[in-house]
Structures are given as C-alpha cells and as structure tokens.
Write a structure and sequence with these properties.
single chain; alpha/beta; seven-stranded mixed β-sheet
C-alpha cells in the first residue's frame, strides 16, 4: 500500500501551513496554461517577423521542449526550501514570460540579433516553466498518495496545455494581441506566486517575497495598460513610414502606414499595396482576364479583402455579381469602413453586386456549386504553408471545376525577376491542373517587376487590348507588352510542381526572397 511521504511541511522547514492539494492542482492547471501560451507567443512572433510559420513554430517548439527538460533536470538540485524556490520561480517566470512578446518585438525593431534574443528568451522561459511542475510535485508529496500524485498532476498539466492552446487562437490573439497576451499571463503567474506565499508554506520569510510579487504584478499591469504604446514603439522602427492604423486579427497583423504622397497596407509585415501605384497592379491583375473571358457576368475573387480588385471588376456594366471569399472578416470590415481604404476601393463593398464570404477559400471551393466566368486569385505571397496550399494543384483543380466554359483564371504570382523560380513554379502548377497558362508581368514601382498568370481550360491567344478605355495604366500597347518576358524573366527549367504534400513553392519562395531581404 502506498503511503504519503513523511515530512512536517512542504518546504522541509517546519512551517505551520501544509499545502492544500486542490489548490496546488489548480496551480498546475494555471501554470501549464501559461506555459503553453508563452510557447505559442514566441512561435507567433517569430513567424510574424521572419515568415515561414511552419519552420519558426517547429524550431521554437523544439527549443522550448528541450528547455522544459533542462528545467526539470535542474530541479533535482533544489533540496530545501521548496516553497520558497517555487515562489521565486513563479515570479521569475512572470517577468520573463510576461515580457517575452514586447521584448521580442522591440528586439526585432532595434537590434540585428533577433534570433539570439528569440531563442535566448525561449530557453529562459522554457527552463523556468520546466522547474515549476517538479517543484510542485515535491510539495504535493506531503499530502497526496504517491500513486495518484503523478497521474493527477500530469492530467492537470495536459489539460492546461489544451486550455492554453484553445484560448490562444480563439480568444487571446484576436482580442488582446500578442503583447497583451504575454503580459496578461505574466500577471497571472505573478498572482499565482503571490497566492502561493500563503498556501504552500514557508513561514514568515515569505513576507519579503510577497512584496516583490506585488511589485512585479504592478509592473506587468502597467505594461499591459501601455501595450499599444509598446507595440507602436516597435512598429514605428519596423516600418519606414508613420504607422496610422494597426490591428491584430485572428489571422494576421494588419498595419497601415502613411508617407508624404501615399499610404501602404502591410499584412504580417509584408507590403500588400501602396496607394500611389496600386492601380498598376490591380489593372494588370483584372483587365487581361476580362479581355480573355468569353463572358463576364459572374466573377469570383479569392482573397482581395482590400476591395481593390473588386473596384476594377465593378467597372464592367455586364458584371451581374461578384463573390469575394476572404478568410479574415476584420480585413473586409476595415476595407469597407476605414475612410482612406474605403475611398481607395471606391466603396466596392457597398455595391449591391458584391457578396462577401468569410471562409478559407480552399474549403469553400470544395463545397461550392456555382460556376464563374472569371476567377481572380489575389492571395498574399506564398511565404508560409498556410498560404502555400492556395498555390497547389489541389487548389487549382478546385478552381477549374468552378470555371464556366470559356472562363478565365488569373493569379498573382510574385515577382518573375526577384523570385523567378517561384513564378514559374506557380505557372507550371496551374498547367499541371489542366489549364493553358500564359504568364505575364507588370512594373509596379512599390514592388518592382510583378508577375501574374492568365489561364483558361482551352487554348487561347494572349489578349491584345483591354475591353475598357480610359484606364490609368493599361491601353493597347501596354497590354501587349505584359506578355513579353525578357530573358532575365524567361521560363525556368526543371521547376517542380507545387503539391499539397510537398509545398515546394514555399521553399523556393523563402530561398529566393532571402537574397533580397
């Protein structure tokens, strides 16, 4: 029969207070939730500023788990004053974990050693979190039968991981943002540390620790109230121009900046357009497809949550309806209500022909039934696997199923000059899905040479003139020049097809753009 291990107190110092098991198991739940949140915060910040979310999360998770093991190993060297040690670890975790997001953002903005700061932070926070559970288990040994102890402690630990993961994606990031999320859980760790000074034992010597805990909690609370200023201080250094709007959504960080003659939209730090020259991009994106399509009544836009492609589409009187599928409802809400952007897109979201769907475009296409005369695909560049799936044969096969006879597909396809392999990977992937593809390019000063792919299910000639007159960029001469690719943008041989199970395009893209960034 298993028996509780003897001992007068949780810390071996003869304190009067014995730990209450239910309080300590609740503590396990809280610290496990906080621990997983710190890990997710580090991975999210890394993917936000460095791109390639799969790689960043994989490395962060690996380093964090190793640090947890290091912390668990180091706990064996703490033989006395367990209660005091646990409280000090909680306060240290509160500071290191709570400050992790603001420190990482500021490090990216002000230093060239971001990776060192990132992984150093992950190691420190992971080691501290790794110390917490072994110390608590040793405190719990005073009151809980040993065979139940490990099972119950681990059950609460894993439950906390689940709670933290769900809260992070569904509530914390959309409502609080990354900086406030880490500060909030640092504050929670501080509160646990303060409360622990009463219920884990330790006697009168805990009074000093209690005061330190209140000071740490006050610092974190003050930082929480100033989170927007902290974020702005980092983003003002990250972006060349004044930040005039910033919002964290469930899917991305939306930032708008303003220069003397233009304003710019960034998603997760990547430029999406500049108001001074976006018309060149959007005219090149939309009007060749309208010239190539046999009919123009029913149009699908995948992505394009800024409403600028829709603005060009709605110029055509023969358009009867436009279905725009964008995963982020806050992006379309901003585009339809923020005056600068709403005026730029000519209030396209207010047009009665517009029908907006908030869904993953691939999931939506798999369940949709309608056919479209024109499909405009205007996704951000494939800099991570979540976006890379929208450039695969699977996605283009879904598009082909929804393209009406004689219909045209157009896809933005990154730069054929700066990312030549990526550009031709997209073109060849579209062909592999059963399309006849005609790659083309346009000069957009904010981006440089930019690429597109026009495609149909049947053979066709490249369009020679836009169907509308009076465009700012495109006329007959410029339309013809779009489809002339100079030798430095010519077809790249030996490029692989981008498939859902390999996502080679993301690797191509990261490798090519790394040279320029």
């Amino acid at each position: 029969m298993d028996l509780p291990l003897p001992g007068p107190s949780a810390d071996g110092e003869g304190a009067d207070v014995a730990p209450k098991p239910w309080l300590l198991f609740a503590t396990v739940l809280v610290i496990a939730t906080a621990g997983i949140v710190y890990e997710l915060v580090a991975g999210a910040v890394a993917s936000y500023v460095l791109g390639d979310s799969i790689t960043q999360f994989s490395i962060v998770i690996g380093v964090y788990l190793s640090a947890l093991g290091l912390g668990a190993y180091l706990s064996r060297f703490i033989d006395t004053r367990l209660a005091r040690a646990f409280v000090e670890v909680e306060f240290s975790t509160a500071l290191a974990g709570g400050a992790s997001a603001p420190v990482l953002f500021l490090a990216y903005a002000h230093t060239k050693a971001f990776s060192l700061v990132l992984y150093g932070t992950v190691v420190v926070v992971g080691t501290l979190v790794g110390l917490e559970l072994p110390l608590l288990i040793r405190i719990l040994r005073q009151r809980v039968v040993i065979k139940e102890l490990i099972a119950r402690a681990l059950a609460f630990d894993y439950l906390g991981a689940l709670v933290g993961s769900l809260l992070f994606s569904l509530l914390l990031v959309p409502k609080l943002g990354l900086v406030r999320t880490s500060l909030a859980f640092g504050l929670l760790n501080a509160v646990v540390g303060i409360a622990s000074t009463w219920y884990v034992g330790g006697g009168p010597e805990m009074r000093g620790a209690r005061v330190r805990g209140f000071v740490i909690a006050a610092i974190l609370l003050a930082a929480f109230t100033q989170a927007e200023r902290i974020t702005a201080a980092a983003e003002d250094q990250i972006y060349a121009d004044e930040v005039i709007f910033a919002r964290q959504t469930a899917y991305q960080r939306i930032v708008m900046t303003r220069s003397q003659h233009s304003f710019q939209l960034f998603l997760n730090g990547n430029l999406q357009f500049a108001s001074a020259d976006e018309y060149r991009y959007h005219e090149a994106l939309v009007h060749p497809a309208f010239a190539a399509a046999e009919k123009r009544a029913h149009v699908l836009v995948a992505g394009g949550g800024d409403g600028l492609a829709a603005r060009e589409i709605l110029r055509y009187p023969e358009v009867e309806d436009v279905t725009l599928v964008d995963i982020d409802p806050q992006m379309t809400q901003i585009a339809s209500t923020l005056p600068l952007l709403r005026d730029l897109n000519a209030r396209s979201f207010n047009d009665p022909k517009m029908h907006v769907v908030h869904d993953d475009a691939m999931v939506w296409l798999a369940n949709a039934e309608n056919k479209y005369d024109i499909v405009v695909v205007d996704f951000p560049d494939p800099n991570n696997f979540a976006l890379g799936k929208l450039y695969t044969t699977r996605f283009y096969n879904l598009v082909r199923q929804h393209l009406a006879p004689g219909g045209a597909l157009v896809v933005q396809a990154t730069s054929p000059l700066f990312a030549r392999v990526s550009f031709w990977c997209i073109a060849k992937t579209i062909e592999a899905a059963g399309f006849i593809a005609k790659p083309y390019h346009a000069a957009v000063p904010s981006f440089g040479e930019w690429g597109f792919v026009l495609a149909k299910r049947e053979p066709f000639e490249a369009p020679e003139r836009p169907r509308l007159a009076g465009l700012r960029f495109l006329d007959e001469a410029s339309m013809k020049s779009l489809f002339v690719l100079s030798p430095d943008m010519a077809e790249e041989k030996g490029v692989e097809i981008n498939k859902l199970n390999n996502q080679i395009l993301v690797s191509y893209y990261e490798h090519e753009w790394r040279r320029w960034n």
